[in-house]
Structure formats: C-alpha cells, structure tokens
Amino acid sequence: MAEQSGLSERLQAIRAQVEENLQKIADSKSIYEYRKSVFDGKVGLIGSLMREMGKIPKEEKAEFGKRVNEIKNWAQEEFEKKNSVLKELEMKKRYEAEKIDITMPAKMRAHGNLHPVTQVTNQLIDIFAGLGFDIYEGTEIEKDYYNFTALNTPQDHPARDMQDTFYLSPEFLLRTQTSAGQIHVMEEKKPPIKIISPGKVFRSDDDATHSPMFTQMEGLVVDEGITLGDLKGMLDEIVQKIFGEGTTTRLRPSYFPFTEPSVEVDVSCFQCGGCGCSLCKGTGWIEILGAGVVNNKVLEGCGIDTEKYSGFAFGVGLERIAMLKYGYNNIKLLFESDLRVLSQIDD
Ligand code: PHE
After folding, report:
1. Is the CATH number 3.40.50.300 carried by domain 116-342?
2. Under 8 Å CB-to-CB from 174, ≥6 apart: which residues?
3. Alpha carbon of 219 to those of 178, 179, 293, 294: distances in Å?
4. Is the pLDDT reported for residue 210 higher than 90?
C-alpha cells in the first residue's frame, strides 16, 4: 500500500523532537506542561495529527490512524518513564531537605515565672486558706456606695480625700480599696464570716512606693466575740510566715472610717535594717497594712446584729510585701515587665 507522502519521515522527525525535548526537561512540572502541549488536539505536535484524517485518501486512512496511534502510545510511554524518573529524583531531594536529625539538641525555650506579686498572692492565699479563710473575688469597677458610703465614708466625709479616686461616673468608680468587697460579703452571707479578697485597686498616686494600680488583699472576720486581740494574734503569725522569724512589726494607732479602733501595721525596713534610709524615709519602718475592728456602723448597715457579733478587717498592699520579701527598692520594677528582674524570683 502506498504510504501517504512523507508520513514516515514526519513521524520520525516528531519522535526525534520529542526525544530531544524530553531530554532537556529537568522537573516534573515542565514535563506536565510539555506533555499538554504535545497532545494538544489543535496545535500539538502529536495531538493535531488526527485532524489531518479528513485530508487523507480513503484507502490510506487505516494505516495513517494506526501509525498515529503508535506514535501516541510511544510518546505516552516516554513521558511516563521520564516523569517517574524525575518524580523519584524530586522526592529524594525533598526527603533530603526535610530530613530531621533526631539526635540534635532541642531548642530551649525560655521559661517564665509567675509575677512576683502573683507569687506573693498565692503564698498568702495558702497561708490564709490554712487558717480557714474563704476567697471572695470582687470587681474592679465598683459603685461609690460599696467603695465609700457603706464603709462609713459618705459623700462629704473628709476621709474620701485620703484616696484620690478615678471616677467613671458619679455612681461608678475604679475601686480604691478591696474593702468594697467587705460589704458585698456581709450582704450575701451571715456570720460567721472569714474571707480574704485579693485584687487590683486604683488610686491617682505615683512615686517610688506608690503606683496608680496596685494589688491589695482584704481580710474580714466576723463572728461572736472577735476583738483586736484576735487581729493581733493572727497578724503576728502571718508576718512571721511571710518574712521569717525575727521580722519585727509594730502597730500604730490610725484612722479608717470603717474600723474603730484602727491600726497601721509596719514592718522593719529591709534596705537599712531599721537604721533609716531613703526608702523608709528615715523611719526604719515601712507601712504595709491597715487594719482595725470593724466599725459597728458598717456591720449594722449590712444588717448584722452588733450585740452578738463583732469583727476585724485588714487590707494589705501586695506590691509592698513583694518589695520587702524580694528586696525591690522601687515599686516600678514590678510594673516594667523587665525579664531580668522578673526571672529572678521563683519562690
Ligand atoms: N482599705 C484600707 C486602705 O486601702 C485598708 C484597710 C482595710 C484598713 C481594712 C482597715 C481595714 O488603706
């Protein structure tokens, strides 16, 4: 049978070209692209051959179709072969790149500590829990009523000047003292009451020993026959537990509207050992705690029978405790998030 003119040569040339191009291809993505172009039904080197069928004389059609199929199958195979070789190479490369050396030392992560104030808070919670105290968590936004009025500090009371208050509205403020929690507790619960209440408080106050935001822990005990002696006994125990034996304290008469009598508790200055320095302003003592016997007016305001019950309360600044315990000479160190400072304390 006469061959369509030049078909063999053409097919030969196509093979040669495909072979040559395949040799040059070095990645599976390019092979995919090239394969697509070769088999393209319109313009592809092989793909377009079938379109010529119409022009082929009838008697040559069968032979033509056969030869075209042959070259198609041949090309498919060549592509497959090349593709699997390249795929294998690529996988090898990838495994190489992604290889993990499990004998390598692990990257060390810097581990953090709890903030010193949190550490002190937790220690105090432990001590007080051991003495049978419950924890009450108040809110940082308070009503003026709970922060002042119900604590025997009405609107025009001069004691309001003792604390520079951040008011949010005439009715709401950022609590200046955790004492606000005393009232909530006494409204919710009847004696016997024995709670501590740690939390943030806010005052417009800023120097080496004061910060506009600081942390307090309130304590409140209400029961039958509670006296200042109970307060004193408990404080002695607590202070020894926090600062160790030998820490000295002193009680000074003081004034708070919600306690009567009121006391201020000082501990001996850690920086100078009591001789007097700039931190303790030459006195040898640092004030850490306000306390007193709960004023009857406050108890009565909460519906507690003062014939039967009495109580004591205290409020302690936890930054102060942290400063004393860990030797910080400036309260700012506790608010600057300097890891060199914070990472030193792991108590
Ligand atoms: N709330 C007082 C203060 O912040 C401390 C205090 C609490 C005093 C309880 C007496 C009783 O200064």
Report:
1. no
2. 140, 141, 142, 165, 166, 168, 201, 202
3. 9, 8, 11, 11
4. no
Distance of CA 108 from the midpoint of ligand 1 (Å):
45
Q: Quick one: which atom of ligand 1 is closest to the CA of 216?
A: 4
pLDDT digits (tens, 9 = 90+) for 156-190: 887 777 778 999 999 999 999 999 999 999 999 99
Residue 324 Cα to ligand 1 middle (Å): 19
The token pair at 191 is 């004696």
Give dist(CA 327, CA 323) in Å, integer. 5
337 C-alpha vs ligand 1 centroid, how far in Å?
28
Q: Is the pLDDT of residue 221 over 60?
A: yes
CA-nearest residue for atom 4, ligand 1, is: 177
Give 347 Cα–ligand 1 centroid separation in angstroms: 27
Distance, in Å, from the CA atom of 152 to the CA atom of 146, rounded to the nearest integer, reads 10
Give the pLDDT confidence of 309-321 residue by residue, as tens digits: 999 999 999 998 9
> Which two tokens mark 167?
């008011």
Query: Ligand 1 pocket: which of 179, 203, 220 to mutate (most atoms <8 Å of CB)?
Result: 179
Kind of pairing between the strands at 134-135 and 193-202: parallel
Distance 256 CA to ligand 1 centre (A): 7
Return the minimum-mean-pLDDT range out of 24-38, 196-210, 224-238, 268-282. 268-282
Q: What would the mean pLDDT of 230-251 be, rounded to a whole number?
A: 82
Grade residue 227 by pLDDT with cuts at 50, 70 and 90: very high
How confident is the prediction for the chain on average, in pLDDT? 89
CA distance 242 to 316: 13
Q: Which DSSP string corresponds to 176-209?
A: S-TTHHHHHHHHH-PSSEEEEEEEEEE-S--BTT
Minimum CA distance residue for ligand 1 atom 9: 314
What local confidence, expressed as pLDDT, does residue 173 receive? 95
The domain spans of the chain are 2-98, 116-342
User: Ligand 1, closest atom to CA 220?
Assistant: 9
Residue 317 Cα: closest atom of ligand 1: 4
Q: Which residues line ligand 1 (CB under 6 A)?
A: 177, 179, 256, 259, 290-292, 313-315
